[in-house]
């Protein structure tokens, strides 16, 4: 069996408008790389971290924390070295922390002959998310590990439902270069919602899931609505309303905040439309003078994968 693996760890969009904390999807064109190596020295040792200024101490890095959660339940007596090559900017809202925590546990599991189920790996990776944002949410780590769209049906007990991935669906994600910490953008959320708001929201979650399964692009578009979180969080994102309006005007099915922001995602039917949408989103930030990165991606149905 191999002692070392190089892997691609995808960026992910969590929340997806109406699906706060429960829906997520894995991207294909943007993600980190990691090398995971079996070593005899016990514990998790992060020996290289390039691309971002992040802590390398095991207990301060999500890869280390998730890896230790894995080792805590494994009967393997040795340890692992980890190299992290960050391409996803931390705090961008496309699952930077999730890419590292899932990459660590997925790679370790492969090298040990897959003793744990994917669901169990989600649980380990959630420990990393707890370090990053204070909350052990699964909406980024589940799609990174399962691939495609996933629904966290329940947290207690953890129940993850992989969702069908419509073939022509493309994501456009724009990242304005401002930082919003997940923990800060959680603080501004209200903790109660009205029954009326709840009814609208779960109607849309049901509609979105049905639309994804039946590849009904109009239904997907009608359901990409968030009455609860977006009106509050979007205040932290400069130009959000203009970006959203321009994306829809250019043919996007829907548009919303990616994770806790500041990235904004749009879904389109077909790559050509996703490119037009990207251009229109970029134009808004050019006009108001905000630097940005943009990604156009098909849905990554596989999740984390080995690379040579
Ligand atoms: P994202 O919105 O992209 O998921 P978060 O804001 O949730 O990003 O997580 C980033 C936080 O996690 C930062 O505070 C960062 O210092 C911390 N962190 C620790 N280890 C890592 C890692 N390996 N990759 C990314 N972020 C990490």
Automatic annotation (TrEMBL):
<dbReference type="InterPro" id="IPR020568">
    <property type="entry name" value="Ribosomal_Su5_D2-typ_SF"/>
</dbReference>
<comment type="pathway">
    <text>Amino-acid biosynthesis; L-threonine biosynthesis; L-threonine from L-aspartate: step 4/5.</text>
</comment>
<keyword id="KW-0547">Nucleotide-binding</keyword>
<dbReference type="GO" id="GO:0004413">
    <property type="term" value="F:homoserine kinase activity"/>
</dbReference>
<keyword id="KW-0418">Kinase</keyword>
<dbReference type="InterPro" id="IPR014721">
    <property type="entry name" value="Ribsml_uS5_D2-typ_fold_subgr"/>
</dbReference>
<keyword id="KW-0808">Transferase</keyword>
<dbReference type="InterPro" id="IPR000870">
    <property type="entry name" value="Homoserine_kinase"/>
</dbReference>
<keyword id="KW-0791">Threonine biosynthesis</keyword>
<keyword id="KW-0028">Amino-acid biosynthesis</keyword>
<protein>
    <recommendedName>
        <fullName>Homoserine kinase</fullName>
        <ecNumber>2.7.1.39</ecNumber>
    </recommendedName>
</protein>
<dbReference type="InterPro" id="IPR036554">
    <property type="entry name" value="GHMP_kinase_C_sf"/>
</dbReference>
<comment type="similarity">
    <text>Belongs to the GHMP kinase family. Homoserine kinase subfamily.</text>
</comment>
<keyword id="KW-0067">ATP-binding</keyword>
<feature type="domain" description="GHMP kinase N-terminal">
    <location>
        <begin position="74"/>
        <end position="148"/>
    </location>
</feature>
<feature type="domain" description="GHMP kinase C-terminal">
    <location>
        <begin position="210"/>
        <end position="286"/>
    </location>
</feature>
<comment type="function">
    <text>Catalyzes the ATP-dependent phosphorylation of L-homoserine to L-homoserine phosphate.</text>
</comment>
<keyword id="KW-0963">Cytoplasm</keyword>
<dbReference type="InterPro" id="IPR013750">
    <property type="entry name" value="GHMP_kinase_C_dom"/>
</dbReference>
<dbReference type="Pfam" id="PF00288">
    <property type="entry name" value="GHMP_kinases_N"/>
</dbReference>
<dbReference type="InterPro" id="IPR006204">
    <property type="entry name" value="GHMP_kinase_N_dom"/>
</dbReference>
<dbReference type="Pfam" id="PF08544">
    <property type="entry name" value="GHMP_kinases_C"/>
</dbReference>
């Amino acid at each position: 069996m191999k002692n070392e693996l190089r892997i691609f760890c995808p960026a992910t969009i969590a929340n997806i408008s109406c699906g706060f904390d429960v829906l997520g999807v894995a991207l294909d064109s943007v993600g980190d790389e990691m090398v995971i190596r079996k070593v005899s020295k016990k514990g998790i040792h992060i020996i290289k971290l390039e691309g971002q200024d992040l802590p390398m101490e095991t207990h301060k890095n999500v890869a280390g924390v998730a890896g230790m959660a894995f080792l805590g339940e494994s009967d393997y007596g040795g340890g692992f070295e980890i190299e992290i090559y960050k391409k996803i900017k931390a705090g961008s809202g496309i699952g930077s922390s999730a890419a590292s925590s899932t990459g660590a546990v997925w790679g370790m599991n492969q090298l040990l002959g897959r003793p744990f189920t994917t669901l169990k790996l989600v649980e380990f990776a959630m420990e990393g998310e707890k370090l990053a944002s204070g909350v052990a949410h699964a909406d980024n780590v589940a799609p990174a590990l399962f691939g495609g769209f996933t629904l966290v049906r329940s947290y207690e007990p953890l129940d993850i439902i992989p969702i069908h991935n419509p073939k022509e669906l493309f994501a456009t994600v724009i990242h304005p270069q401002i930082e919003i910490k997940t923990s800060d953008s959680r603080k501004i959320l209200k903790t109660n919602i009205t029954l009326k708001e709840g009814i609208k929201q779960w109607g849309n979650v049901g509609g979105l899931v049905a639309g994804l399964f039946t590849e009904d692009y109009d239904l997907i578009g009608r359901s990409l609505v968030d009455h609860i979180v977006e009106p509050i969080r979007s205040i932290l994102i400069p130009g959000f309303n203009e970006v959203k309006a321009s994306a829809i005007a250019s043919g996007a099915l829907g548009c919303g905040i990616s994770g806790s922001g500041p990235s904004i995602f749009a879904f389109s039917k077909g790559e050509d439309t996703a490119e037009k949408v990207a251009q229109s989103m970029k134009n808004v930030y050019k006009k108001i003078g905000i630097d940005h990165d943009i990604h156009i991606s098909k849905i990554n149905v596989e999740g984390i994968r080995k690379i040579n």
